[in-house]
Structures are given as C-alpha cells and as structure tokens.
C-alpha cells in the first residue's frame, strides 16, 4: 500500500483564456499603425486593439467562421496561434476531462479543482467518506485516488496501524 504525501494547497482554476478587444478611434495626427492581420497601415477612423496589437476592423476575424470579432461581444480566444470566437473555441477545445470523483465530463470553462493530475467538479471535491467540503487552502489528502479529509485520513492510518500485517 502506498500512502501518498499529504496534499496541501489545492488550486481553484478558471480555465477560460479570453482577451478583450478595444475599439479605438485613430487620432489624425498620429502616424498610422500597422495591422497585425494584413500588415498594411490602418488608415480607417477606427481600429481594434487586441493582444497588444492593432487590427483593421475587418482583419480581426475568427479563424474558423470568419466572423468579425470586434462585433461579437468584444472578446477573443486564442489557442495554438489561432484567433477564435467563443463559440468556435468552445467547440474545438471544449472539454476539460473527466472528473476523478464522478467520472463525468467536465465542460470547458467550468471552475475545477485540481489535485495532482486529477480534476474535479467543484461539487465533487469533497471527502469521499464523510462528504466534508474543502475550502481553498484547507488540507486534504489523496489516498488510493480518494480524496480524504484530515480526520478520515488519520483514522485510516490508525486502522491500518492496528490491522494485522498481511504480506
Ligand atoms: Zn488589416
Ligand atoms: Zn468563429
Ligand atoms: Zn464530478
Ligand atoms: Zn472525511
């Protein structure tokens, strides 16, 4: 039997990687900025700023569906050098994995708890013996891939200590 080290400091993670898009009006007296999409100068009255770069309104498009991202809620998503709208990002990279407790899929962008390589629904991240929930920073223990609270973990140790050793 392998007893894993006590685990500390589980992380709560938000997985969404979105970036804001700003629409700026171009000041007539500044020299025109280059567009990161087509590399030409932006001479329009408005330009978009996203990912620390400047874009024509027509050039900041979703790599999948070609929608103009400046118009679609002013958020863009990137992954593997692709610029995507939320819908396509979800479609392509939508699944986080399976919850280690209930083994159901975790939808993308849902908050998850991580412990080592396991991911859990927030609702599933509880002691699997007494159902105690943990707050961020609480101590929890992983044993045989079960999440345990400190009490149950220590009780388990006690029992093992007194159980006859079978080898
Ligand atoms: Zn352009
Ligand atoms: Zn799209
Ligand atoms: Zn779950
Ligand atoms: Zn417990």
TrEMBL record:
Pfam families named among the record's database cross-references: LIM
Domain of life where this protein originates: Eukaryota
Gene3D superfamilies given in the database record: Cysteine Rich Protein
Record keyword Magnesium present: no
Domain LIM zinc-binding, chain residue ranges per copy: 33-95, 97-159
BP GO annotations: positive regulation of transcription by RNA polymerase II
GO cellular component: nucleus
Keyword Zinc: yes
GO molecular function: DNA-binding transcription factor binding; metal ion binding; transcription coactivator activity
Keywords: LIM domain, Metal-binding, Repeat, Zinc
Cited CDD domains: LIM1_LMO1_LMO3, LIM2_LMO1_LMO3
SUPFAM superfamilies reported in the protein's UniProt record: Glucocorticoid receptor-like (DNA-binding domain) (SSF57716)
PANTHER family to which the protein is assigned, alphabetical: LD11652P, LIM DOMAIN ONLY PROTEIN 3
Protein name as annotated: LIM domain only protein 3
Protein encoded by which gene: LMO3
């Amino acid at each position: 039997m392998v007893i894993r080290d006590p685990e500390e400091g589980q992380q709560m993670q938000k997985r969404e990687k979105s970036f804001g898009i700003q629409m700026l009006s171009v000041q007539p007296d500044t020299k025109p900025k280059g567009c990161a999409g087509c590399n030409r100068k932006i001479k329009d009255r408005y330009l978009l700023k996203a990912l620390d770069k400047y874009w024509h309104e027509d050039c900041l498009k979703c790599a999948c569906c070609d929608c103009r991202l400046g118009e679609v809620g002013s958020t863009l998503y990137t992954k593997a050098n692709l610029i995507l709208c939320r819908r396509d990002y979800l479609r392509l990279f939508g699944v986080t994995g399976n919850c280690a407790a209930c083994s159901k899929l975790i939808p993308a962008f849902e908050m998850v708890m991580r412990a080592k390589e396991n991911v859990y629904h927030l609702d599933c991240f509880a002691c699997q013996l007494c159902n105690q929930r943990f707050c961020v920073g609480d101590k929890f223990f992983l044993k045989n891939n079960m999440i345990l609270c400190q009490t149950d973990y220590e009780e388990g140790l006690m029992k093992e200590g007194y159980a006859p050793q079978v080898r």
